[in-house]
Amino acid sequence: MTDNNRVVIFDTTLRDGEQSPGATMSHAEKLEIAGLLDEMGVDIIEAGFPIASEGDFEAVKAIAQQAENSVICGLARANFKDIDRCYEAVKHARQPRIHTFIGTSPLHRAIPNLTMDEMADKIDETVSHARNLCDNVQWSPMDATRTEWDYLCRVIEIAIKAGATTINIPDTVGYTAPGESADLIRRLISTVPGADEVVFATHCHNDLGMATANSLAAVEGGARQIECTINGLGERAGNTALEEVVMAMKVRNDIMPFSTRIDSTKLMNISRRVAAVSGFAVQFNKAIVGKNAFAHESGIHQDGMLKNAETFEIMRPEDVGLTETNLVLGKHSGRAALRSKLADLGFELGDNQLKDVFVRFKALADQKKEVYDEDLIALMQVGSDVEDRIKLTALKVSCGMGLEKSAEMTLSIDGAETSVTATGDGPVDAAFNAVKQLFEHKARLQVYQVAAVTEGTDAQATVTVRLEEDGKIATGQSADVDTVVASVKAYVDALNRLLIRREKSGGDTPEVSYKDVS
Ligand code: KIV
Ligand code: ZN
Q1: In what order do the strands lie in the sheet containing 416-424?
Q2: pLDDT at 164
Q3: In this structure, what DSSP letter does residue 17 have?
Q4: According to the per-residue pLDDT averaged within each range, which of 59-63, 310-314, 466-470 is highest?
Q5: Residue of the nearest CA to atom 2 in ligand 1?
Q6: Pocket residues for ligand 1 (CB within 6 Å)?
Q7: Residues 6+ apart with CB under 8 A from 427
């Protein structure tokens, strides 16, 4: 295999993924995910959009300082202010990259009301400016797949001449199909002067469920960078899922002879962490990382599997970091057993993380005789609350047939404890009313979902709560053997994430989005 078959993996979970409504991550969570991406072998991490807020800037800067192997990239619209701010954040990395973009399709050109010539000049100026700051510059014609062919070739040529080192071709609205995707890249590479001096990248959205196929087709056409996110996180139907393109090229290397630097055994762990910190659970039947991706329940499948695992498995669970063990933990299990069990499940923890998880594990084992794999996964999906402004410290509910439903609650808000007793239609309603009285807010409950982690009446409940306030959305999650406690913790988690969103937008000023025109 020649180097020409090496595909660069560009992960944008922390930028395109995090910008999707409800997927807010805290500073510490972003750093944790960036660390895992770096360790897993991601070539380039798009760490955020530095101009968007002080919080975004600080996160990109901290990720740049922390990165060991990955190139750290920030996003910037086509103006000097965005580009300067972006460089200020990424310059701390060993290998920084500026990614600047502008919408080039007729619909996107109409928003800033620029003529084709005016936009071409803007591209020349801004890419040159970025290149004067940084040797590694990526340029994207947003909505490339709906941009006129001649104009697309023209602006790409300008960007290359101005110093772009990577040309990314976004399918911003998930409109293209695999044949077209391959053809577009192939034709661009053979038509645009200077194309052989840069790397072509593909950035696909999944609106028609074709993002993975389109990205792989683009590679067939000559692209050598795939932009993707963990679990396919991203706005609307999301982006190309990193785990899917990586495993497709690995398992079907016979027909897609391309290589990446990704250690696939780390996929399961990072998938679970991203699900936990974003609040976006992975669907059970999701390719590669879904709970059922390696489960064989029907009789016929089980029989085949027992005779030969290859009957129904095209890859081994351990290839993606999933190992089965029968060891059930309980309240006498020690730290070493917990660490080893979590490692089997794909979670590799540092000492401090283990300390925190062990405390939560002990609390769970006190409530539940046997702690199963699913319980531990749920435990890991509840993030650490060190940065939380609001914490639940006490809760007592009373309910029953013909009785008044009430909740007596204490919250710690910015370190000060306050208590109240509230009533409601049911225990959860009463508890949520108590939160509202203790911490006044006008967020609207959009989703309240409860699921049992395992079978049996002592099962933990995992609860998801989605809140909306002034167009900002945040999702919170929690798990507990007590459904009302899990519900309140999930509600409080969503509120804490809304507060991060509020801070990000500086109170009343609206958040800057990459979709805003520069
Ligand atoms: O989808 C898109 O076009 C983008 C660009 C900013 C690259 O995310
Ligand atoms: Zn995108």
Answers
A1: 390-398, 405-413, 416-424
A2: 98
A3: I
A4: 59-63
A5: 172
A6: 16, 101, 140, 142, 168, 170, 172, 203, 205, 514
A7: 397, 398, 399, 405, 407, 484
Beta strands in 49-172 (DSSP E): 71-77, 96-103, 137-142, 166-171
Q: Residue 18 and residue 511: Cα distance in Å, rounded?
A: 13
Any idea which ligand is nearest the CA of 228? Answer: 2
Q: With b meaning 16 or more CB within 10 Å and e meaning fewer, what string describes 295-313?
A: ebeeeeeeebeeeeeeeeb
Q: Is 95 exposed, middle or buried, given 0-12, 13-18 or 19+ CB atoms closer than 10 A?
A: middle
Residue type, 439: F
* Residue pLDDT, tens place only, 469-515: 988 888 888 889 999 999 999 999 999 989 887 876 665 445 667 77
Please report where in the chains the tokens 């190992």 appear, as a residue.
323
Distance separating alpha carbons of residues 75 and 56, to the nearest angstrom: 11
More confident residue, 290 or 295: 290
* Spatial distance between the Cα atoms of 320 and 426, rounded to a whole number of angstroms: 43
Going through 443-497 in order, the beta strands assigned E by DSSP cover: 444-452, 461-469, 472-480
Nearest-atom number in ligand 1 for the CA of 101 is 6
86, 142, 215, 228: residue to mutate for ligand 1 pocket, most atoms within 8 A of CB: 142
Query: What tokens were used for 464?
Result: 């998801």
Q: Is 315 left (phi over 0), alpha (psi -120 to 50) or beta?
A: beta
Give the whole-number percent of the chain exceeding pLDDT 90: 68
324-346: burial string, b at 16+ Cβ within 10 Å, e else? eeeeebeeebeeeebbebbebbb
Ligand 1, atom 1, lies closest to the CA of 172
The tokens describing 216, both together, are 């792989």
Q: Compute the distance between CA of residue 262 and CA of residue 25 in angstroms, rounded to an integer.
A: 24
3-state secondary structure labels for all residues of 387-412: CCCEEEEEEEEECCCCCCEEEEEEEE
Using most ligand atoms within 8 A of CB, pick from 172, 207, 515 the residue to mutate for ligand 1: 172
Q: To which H or E segment does residue 413 belong?
A: strand 405-413
* The ligand 1 atom nearest the CA atom of 144: 3
CA–CA dist 227, 246 (Å, integer):
11
**Which pLDDT band holds residue 1 (cuts at 50, 70, 90)?**
very low
d(CA 179, CA 192): 20
Q: 353-363 b/e with 16+ CB inside 10 Å = b?
A: ebeebbeebee
Measured CA distances, 352 to 26, 38, 343, 348, 355 (Å): 18, 19, 15, 12, 5
pLDDT of 459: 85
Supply 247's token pair. Answer: 């495993």
Which residues have CB atoms below 5 A from the ion given as ligand 2?
A: 16
Residue 229 CA to residue 17 CA, distance in Å, equals: 7
Comparing C-alpha atoms, which of 214, 202, 148 is closest to residue 175?
A: 214
